[in-house]
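Bench notes, afternoon.
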Amino acid sequence: MKILSTNMLLGILLIFRFQVACLVRVPVEVVKQRRQAYQHSSSLSIIRSTYYGEGAIGFYRGYLSTVVREIPFSLIQFPLWEYLKQQWGAKKGQLLDPWEAGICGALAGGTAAALTTPLDVAKTRIILAKKDSVMAKSNIASVLQYVYRSSGVKGLFSGMVPRVLWISIGGAIFLGVFEKAKQYFDCRSAGR
């Protein structure tokens, strides 16, 4: 008897992948965002301050909100990328070139970035909050409510334009190169 479908298993593995990746990503994000917010004069002073002020756990503030942001982002980006490639390929009558797949990646990444900006705002507020503050101890829903009450919809989508631009560029490069590599290896395996 089959207990889990392939798609369910892939979904579980995807969530596990995000949790593992965030073990590295979140401490880097904590240092980067605190540095960008000019909370310290150097990254090393942020590392020291976080460790001595909050302990190792301080590097993982925002861990859950990062995982929660990454899951819908990927659930939007990758299926949309595949859909755009399929639609463009059908109109073209053949597989897309890697640069065309990269354009689809930029559109998919930008769309996912725009739609998940409120989750990114919540994650950033949690990471940048002062130790022991209400915001530092809040969950994503509470932070989103606070931002909405204090700044409205505009606050929930603050930083959306640079986020969309940055992720669109990354999506074009990463997914375009991924498509090129995939085509290369498909050709090599077909030649065996």
